[in-house]
C-alpha cells in the first residue's frame, strides 16, 4: 500500500508539472509577447534568461551550463542510453541518413560533445561511398566534453588523420570558422543550452556555403496529451533519479530536463531558422517519437 501511495503521489506531481510548466516558463524567461522563444531583445541582453526553470543573468548562464557538462561528460554516453533506452542512437542514425552526405563533404559539427554525430557521418561516407575525403570539424564550448570525443576517436580508423579535428569554440561566435566554408552544419542536443538561439542559427548561416544545409536534432514538444503526461512523468521523476543513480548527479539532469521544456516549439524554432535567412522544405521539421525529438533543417540559398 505504501508503494502504491508513493507512485500515486509521483504521478500527481507529474500531472501538475504537465499542467503548469508552460506557466513557470513564461515567468522565468521574461520574453515579451511579440518575441518568439529563443530570440532576444536589446533589454534582455543585459538582464536575465533561463537556466532550466531558474532565472539567471545572461552573463552567468554560460558558466552554469559549462559546469553541468563538465559534471556529466564522463557519464554522458551511458546516461543517454539509460535515459532513452537506446532510442537516441536510432534518432542519430536517421539524422545522418536524412543528411545523406556525399563524397568530400565538409561537416561542421557544433556542440559535438562525445562525437556521436561526427563518427556516424564519417562511417556513412566510408561505408556508402568508400570515401575518405569527407571531413568533420568538431566544435564544443566545453573542453571536458570535447576531450571525451577526442579520446573516443583515438580508437577508430580516423585517429591521426585529416578527416577529423577538434576546436573549443562558442556556437554564438564561431570566430575561427571562415564565411561560407562548410557544406553542412549540424548541432545535436546542444542548441537549447545556448543563451541566444537566434545568434547560433545566424552563425550557422554565415559559415555555410551557398547551397549548404543547416541541420539540428533536438528534444522538442509533444502535443499528444496522453503521451505528454507520460513523458512529463518520465522526465521529471525518472530521469533525475537515473542521474543520481548512474552519474551521482541529480541536479545536472534536472536542469537538462527543464531546458527541454524551455526550448521553442517546433513552429517557433522553424521561424527562427527562416528569419536567419534559411529556406525550409515544407514545415521545416520532422518529429521523432511523437515529438520527443525533432529534426529541423534549412538550406542557404
From TrEMBL:
Gene Ontology CC annotation, any one: extrinsic component of mitochondrial inner membrane
EC class name: transferase
Keyword S-adenosyl-L-methionine found: yes
Enzymatic reactions: a 2-methoxy-6-(all-trans-polyprenyl)benzene-1,4-diol + S-adenosyl-L-methionine = a 5-methoxy-2-methyl-3-(all-trans-polyprenyl)benzene-1,4-diol + S-adenosyl-L-homocysteine + H(+)
One GO biological process term: methylation
Protein location: Mitochondrion inner membrane
Annotated keywords: Membrane, Methyltransferase, Mitochondrion, Mitochondrion inner membrane, S-adenosyl-L-methionine, Transferase, Ubiquinone biosynthesis
Membrane topology: Peripheral membrane protein
One Gene Ontology molecular-function label: 2-methoxy-6-polyprenyl-1,4-benzoquinol methyltransferase activity
Record-listed S-adenosyl-L-methionine binding positions: 114, 140, 170-171
Pathway(s) per entry: Cofactor biosynthesis; ubiquinone biosynthesis
InterPro entries on file: SAM-dependent_MTases_sf, UbiE/COQ5_MeTrFase, UbiE/COQ5_MeTrFase_CS
EC code: 2.1.1.201
SUPFAM superfamilies: S-adenosyl-L-methionine-dependent methyltransferases
Subunit structure: Component of a multi-subunit COQ enzyme complex, composed of at least COQ3, COQ4, COQ5, COQ6, COQ7 and COQ9.
UniProt record similarity statement: Belongs to the class I-like SAM-binding methyltransferase superfamily. MenG/UbiE family.
Functional note: Methyltransferase required for the conversion of 2-polyprenyl-6-methoxy-1,4-benzoquinol (DDMQH2) to 2-polyprenyl-3-methyl-6-methoxy-1,4-benzoquinol (DMQH2).
Record-given protein name: 2-methoxy-6-polyprenyl-1,4-benzoquinol methylase, mitochondrial
Annotated source species: Mortierella isabellina (Filamentous fungus)
